[in-house]
Amino acid sequence: MKPKLLLVAGWAFDAAAMTPLAAELSSGFDVETLAASDSIPVGGPFFLVGWSLGGMSALEATLKDPTSVAALCLISSTARFCADADSPHGVPPAEIRAMMLGCKRRPVPTLRKFYERTAAPAVVDPDQAERLAERLAGGDSEILIDGLEYLGRADLRRIDGQSMPATLILHGRQDRVISPDAADDLARRIPGSVLRTFDDVGHDLPLRNPQRVAAEIAEFWKQHAGVTRPRQ
Description:
alpha/beta, Rossmann fold, 7-stranded mixed sheet
């Protein structure tokens, strides 16, 4: 029987966005894709993989029910998205408020601009970004707002000193949504975690290079499944 792997997408992307990565992982895992707004099931054990906001959701779910998570992978994610005195690499609160206002008043241009930033330093196909923005904007706008509110308030830095499953951290060094410094911070907070960075790749790491991401995930599972970092 293949091990269960849950793959959680990021803000303003639905579960279908993770299909290319899921396809790369399907030979070795029983893969289920989720949107960041979906509830992460309990019961496990499973390999929990989250991208961006999905990574924060995965991290929070692990803290709530660590026995369900056999291993954890955080892709282009962070313990604290919003900047404060102890998280200078986060996004300014004013930027989150502007995004919320944009999603209410001009959702398609707001989302299109976000997709361009997500893809940078690569150039996103404008027609593809427009279609995706229109599709997401045509859905439940409250899901987008709720996600931004979560990004503004969530503080998962309480992982310090907690028992954690084996954790893999993947991040693009050109990420313009969540700073690579956030990946370094996660690695410091989870001793024993494995940090892998990708040059010339931005925030859309699992979309841009699903083959390499899948290879890192599969190799990590092979070496670290079932390993737990004890409390300090």
